[in-house]
Design goal:
The chain is mainly β and about 625 residues long. The protein contains 6 helices and 32 strands. The strands form 5 sheets. The chain has a 22-stranded antiparallel β-sheet that branches. It has a 3-stranded mixed β-sheet with strand order 1-25-26, with no helix packed on it.
Length: about 625
């Protein structure tokens, strides 16, 4: 089975599940790029000066200069409409009132666009107020003000978030102004990936949801969703409420039926192959000051698993026989899991967390429509299928991080703020499985990760991180009792912004050894090496380096557009000594429609520089940055 590179701590916390967005056509007004570049440079210099003065608590701090262009426009409209004035020196003052101002999707003075707001349910101010982590009567705390902005900067609901001090009616106090702007919610959302190789062109990924992403104006999602990969179509209802009953309870429900996208029944309908469901509910660590969290989840997934190379099914040949069986990588998988946990958080300069939990799972796999002898079937089960197993047992995790944040721009999105966490972060988890508790095997497992992120001048960063996981179980591998082991390392950096843009670099090396689950790493197309076919290279080791020169975003009326050039180097094999490295280069176009999503639209044209397809252009279209 294909497995992604193991997760290691990233620059920002893992984002919440994102409902795919549509891309409406918006009129374009041409602009002069050189003029825009100069304006961007001036604003960057103003922002750098403002950051320095605000950090020093200097009354000369220009709060508006801290904001991006879209944020600045939203705040200016609110100040003008309500008659507020920016308070230049809020430090040490008591907050008198908290004001909430949420703009509709189309806030600009355009009658045609503003008419569309009638088809959108604008978020209720009380729903936004529930996410504010500082209240009236408390002393202005810049760290908690910035935390409020991070809480609200959710791509599902807000394209613009700004929190600024305004003059209070009570002398000696300061008021807090929270300004947000909705993302279009009632829509037919789409998200797709389109790839081409020597077998032809194919829609390799598609997600569609008919949804109300802001149900009743309470920042909840109610949708009928459909997703498609190369083998199947899954469809069913979805519900997300991250603040159930206003109590910071996170509830997520989803159920799907799975259909073979290429096979029909005698009645002319798609052949159904499985189903899945997920339900999770958790009281989250919604603020840095929150001390307790707890949650529980249940999921099941019964489906037919397939593995692809490019747009064609991967095949397996038994290495012990002279024949070429070309058996497709297809098997029937049934997975059920349930877990519960409780977390205690403490600390100020270093946030620390202890989590105690219990998990149980059942994994069953068998060949699907296998053609061959009993010996060939046994070889296929041994060399392709994941191990059938029931696991049940407790675990304990200890984690920590420094709550140091900064707002960056032009990394995953363009002009919109992106929250980055700096300093040290780490975690270590110890778990076990026991026959006494219903598991098939007695075993224990340990995993850990650590990383460090530091600033590079004003808005660049450098991050190094690593992760390792091992499992101890006797009697599975004759050579060792340590099985299913993985390790990975990452280096990532972004240069400070200059006049034309910035360079972003990312390299990852991952390995696995004594694996008994028949898992492997793969690289190609969306997983790196964009000039090669999907999962073209695979093995127990993977290396992936990507570097992009990304332009600054240019404003074309409501749009933000830009370009990138990139180079990639990578490969996968069962050992580093046997791993040939491949490389490609290309360019891409990026576009952001902030009224509809924080996600970029991406079009990449990549050219392999070696291999059987060297010099043959390949393109990928989809959403989100490549890395």
């Amino acid at each position: 089975m294909r497995e992604p590179i193991p997760l290691i701590p990233e620059l920002t916390p893992v984002p919440p599940p994102v409902i795919p967005r549509s891309s409406p056509v918006v009129p374009v007004v041409p602009v002069v790029p050189s003029t825009l570049a100069k304006a961007k440079l001036v604003r960057a210099q103003e922002r750098e000066t403002a950051e320095r003065l605000c950090a020093a608590q200097d009354p000369a701090c220009d709060w508006m200069a801290l904001l991006g262009g879209l944020e600045r426009a939203s705040v200016a409209r609110t100040l003008a409409a309500r008659g507020y004035e920016i308070e230049p020196a809020p430090w040490g003052k008591v907050i008198g009132q908290v004001h909430i101002s949420n703009e509709a999707v189309f806030a600009e003075k355009n009658r045609v666009l503003q008419f569309l707001n009638h088809f959108h349910i604008t978020t209720r101010e009380r729903a936004i107020a529930k996410e504010v982590v500082i209240a009236a009567g408390e002393v202005w705390d810049q760290a908690r003000v910035e935390e409020t902005a991070r809480r609200l900067r959710d791509p599902l609901w807000s394209s613009v978030v700004a929190v600024v001090p305004v003059v209070s009616k009570t002398e000696g106090q300061v008021d807090l102004l929270v300004v947000t702007r909705d993302v279009w919610s009632l829509r037919l959302n789409t998200k797709y990936a389109f790839s081409a190789d020597e077998q032809g062109q194919k829609l390799t990924g598609l997600s569609i949801s008919l949804s109300e992403n802001n149900f009743l104006g309470l920042r909840s999602v109610l949708a009928a969703a459909m997703s498609m990969d190369q083998s199947e179509i899954s469809t069913g209802p979805l519900f997300i409420d991250k603040n159930l009953f206003g109590k910071h309870l996170d509830l997520r429900l989803r159920a799907n039926l799975h259909f073979n996208r290429d096979r029909f029944t005698q009645d002319g309908v798609l052949d159904r192959e499985g189903h899945d469901s997920t339900i999770t509910i958790a009281r989250t660590l919604w603020a840095l000051a929150t001390e307790w969290a707890a949650g529980a989840s249940f999921s099941h997934n019964f489906q037919i698993e397939r593995s692809y190379r490019g747009t064609q099914l991967r095949t397996y040949d038994d290495p012990t026989t002279p024949e070429t069986e070309a058996q497709p990588y297809v098997y029937d998988s049934k997975v059920i899991s349930a877990s519960t946990y409780a977390t205690r958080q403490w600390g100020k300069q270093l946030k620390q967390q202890i989590t105690i939990g219990y998990g149980a799972s059942s994994q069953r796999a068998k060949p699907y429509q296998f053609v061959g002898t009993d010996a060939q079937r046994a070889a296929f089960v041994h060399n392709v299928l994941p191990r059938t197993e029931v696991s049940s047992g407790p675990y304990v995790e200890y984690a920590g991080f420094q709550p140091v944040y900064k707002t960056l721009r032009n990394l995953q999105t363009y002009d919109l703020g992106e929250d980055a966490r700096f300093g040290v972060d780490y975690s270590i988890l110890v778990g076990s499985g026991a026959k006494l508790l219903g598991a098939d095997y007695n075993h224990w497992r340990v995993s850990g990760s650590a990383g460090y992120t530091t600033r590079w001048c004003r808005d660049g960063f450098v991050r190094v991180a690593g992760a390792v996981a091992i499992r101890h179980q006797a009697g599975v591998d004759p050579d060792t009792n340590f099985i299913d082991n993985t390790a990975s390392g990452k280096l990532r950096f972004a240069t400070p912004s200059v006049k034309l843009g910035r360079i972003v670099f990312d390299t990852t090396l991952a390995t696995r050894w004594h694996d008994t689950q028949n898992r492997f790493y793969s690289i190609g197309s969306e997983t790196g090496l964009r000039g090669f076919v999907i999962d073209e290279f695979l093995g127990d080791r993977v290396f992936n380096t990507q570097v992009e020169a990304r332009s600054v975003p240019y404003a074309l009326w409501a749009l933000r557009v830009g370009a990138t050039v990139f180079y990639e180097l990578g490969g996968a094999a069962n050992s580093l000594a046997d791993m040939p490295l491949h490389h490609d280069a290309g360019f891409g176009v990026r576009m952001l429609i902030p009224q509809t999503s924080r996600e970029l639209f991406r079009f990449d044209l990549a050219i392999p520089l070696d291999g059987r397809s060297a010099g043959t252009p390949r393109f990928i279209a989809g959403f989100e940055s490549a890395f």
